Task: structure prediction
Amino acid sequence: MAVRELKHPVVWLTPRLCYATALTGVAVMFGAALYMQHAMGLEPCALCMMQRIWVAATGVVALIALVHAPVGWGLYLYTGLGGGAALLGGGFSIRQMYLQSLPPDQVPACGPSLDYMLEVFPLSEVLEVMITGSGDCALVQWSLLGLSIPGWTLIGFIGLAALFGASVFAPRNR
Result:
């Protein structure tokens, strides 16, 4: 009896499954963020909102890719867009984790709330605070297993980027 060789070691993995799983991950991340904000009363800081923007961008790419079911160069395009959005969001998570690790005397000054800044400040100043963070972003409001919210968000972004990367290596004949 001859042993049959598999053409691809993971035959159940398809690009569409990767996109659907990424979209599910985005929904879980948003659900957790909204639960923490509305049920637990944790107010998101500027960097948290920036991370939400990149979670949403990753989700939009995953949804479009899921509907489009690309092949050829389109597969690489969606991988670059979705994986890039996830990696950028992960960069903002790392920035917030850095701010949280600073000694109290090196934490930047706290500023007004994001809602107030959007109403009063020019958009360029609001974006600067959203990109660099403020003292509010250094506050650890919640943690689980020693990781704060941006740590868990970073894990989510890494998972989303990995799913987009896996879509390139998945068999395309389904």
Q: What stands out?
A: Helices lie at 15-39, 46-68, 73-101, 114-120, 123-132, 149-169. Residues 36 and 84 are 26 Å apart (CA to CA). The radius of gyration is 19 Å. The chain is about 65% helix and 0% strand.
